Amino acid sequence: MRMIAGEAGISVGALYLYYRSKEELCSTVFKGLFNEFRDAIAERTREISDPAEQIRTYIGTYMEMARVHREFIYTFNKDKGFAFGVEWKQKFFVELRRFLNGIIRRGIDEGIFADIEESEATKIVLSVLRGYVVSIVIDPDNLFTADACTDILLNGLVKRRGPQKGADVPR
Amino acid sequence: MRMIAGEAGISVGALYLYYRSKEELCSTVFKGLFNEFRDAIAERTREISDPAEQIRTYIGTYMEMARVHREFIYTFNKDKGFAFGVEWKQKFFVELRRFLNGIIRRGIDEGIFADIEESEATKIVLSVLRGYVVSIVIDPDNLFTADACTDILLNGLVKRRGPQKGADVPR
DNA sequence: GGTTCACATGAACAGGCGTTCATCTGAAGA
DNA sequence: TCTTCAGATGAACGCCTGTTCATGTGAACC
């Protein structure tokens, strides 16, 4: 709080005129960022019809947002006092998951995706992205490109046999 | 430190007879766990010849170890004073990455895996697992099965066309 | 019994944290 | 000019942390 006040050019006491507590301050910032995050993903994927391309955009947007706000992530991961806000994080994750789950379900229904377990697939894609966020903070060597990530999640590691519609799912 | 001493049934001072600092204590535990982790993965994958099966085992072992030591992960993620040991974590990650990278490289060389960028693929697989560990702590709803994870990473989301060697890479 | 000494104890210390509140400030109204 | 009061200040408070060190303890040896 002392650092935030200093950075804002006001006193610690003034901070408590606008926010009841550190938790309220952090929650406010977090909620704003969450909305920006969700809106960016929803907006960019809206006009796309191919679920595979939607996932590519979802992944790209997620990673871009994480990079853009890396200072935020870094600060809040390093801050030892930021252990609250769990319920907000949960809601955040649930929304992200539900959205992605819809894309994957549609991909399966349309026969573009394989007959996978949609909820498992959703969690796994989200897990890659969650790992990406962690890497930003503690292991930048593990950062990868959005394209490589999309390609592997869509096509897998194993070599594809037989004819492929390469235009649909470029490697 | 007070909690550890209490749990161990000794005094705080006695803790400092055996460990110079909290950092040294934590590093000791961490190193031991790291070695166990690495040995388990190396041992279980040793006798396997198919790179795809090696990755399946790698993923399964990683997730199992994370689950077995979930209390450890939980504690150390909640503990506000455990921000050091970065260099050890780095070494840990590098070793895990190098090992996995070797498996993937061999898979590509043997024509089992597609012509992917091995270093990117490595990071992506590790990222899924890193996300899994995070989920254990902050979002258990996002936990998935090792089999689903392996299948998606090996086969991808997109439906495979043409003949497949289903026995090799079961969905 | 007396001496020694490795081991063990936990109160005390210094520093950091989020939060409070007596105090100040300066513009607006009388 | 004097009064009022919302807004701003930062020293102080209580709590928690990792760490230290004067003090205690008891087995081993002379």
What best-fitting shape of chain A do the alpha-carbon axes yield?
A: elongated
N→C terminal distance of chain A: 48 Å
Instruction: Work out the strand percent of chain A.
Output: under 5%
User: Can you write the helix and strand succession of chain A as a string?
Assistant: HHHHHHHH
The major pleated sheet of chain A works out as: none
The CATH homologous superfamily of chain A is named Tetracycline Repressor, domain 2
State the share of residues found in helices of chain A, binned by percent.
Answer: over 70%
Q: Could you give the count of β-strands of chain A?
A: 0
Total of domains of chain A? 1
Helix vs. strand class of chain A? mainly alpha
CATH class of chain A: Mainly Alpha
| pLDDT averaged over residues of chain A | 89
Write the layout of secondary structure elements.
The structure is a homodimer of 171-residue chains.
Chain A: H1 2-8, H2 12-18, H3 22-46, H4 51-68, H5 70-78, H6 86-109, H7 118-138, H8 146-155
Chain A binds a DNA duplex (30 and 30 nucleotides) through residues 1-2, 10-14, 16-17, 21-22, 80-81.
Notes on the protein architecture:
Two copies of one chain form a homodimer. By secondary structure, chain A is mainly alpha-helical. Chain A has one domain (27-155): Tetracycline Repressor, domain 2 (Orthogonal Bundle). Chain A has helices spanning 2-8, 12-18, 22-46, 51-68, 70-78, 86-109, 118-138, 146-155. In chain A, helix 3 (22-46) packs antiparallel against helix 4 (51-68), helix 3 (22-46) runs parallel beside helix 6 (86-109) and helix 4 runs antiparallel to helix 8. Chain A is elongated, with a radius of gyration of 19 Å. Chains A and B meet through helix 6, helix 7 and helix 8 of A and helix 6, helix 7 and helix 8 of B. The first copy, chain A, binds a DNA duplex (30 and 30 nucleotides) through helix 2.
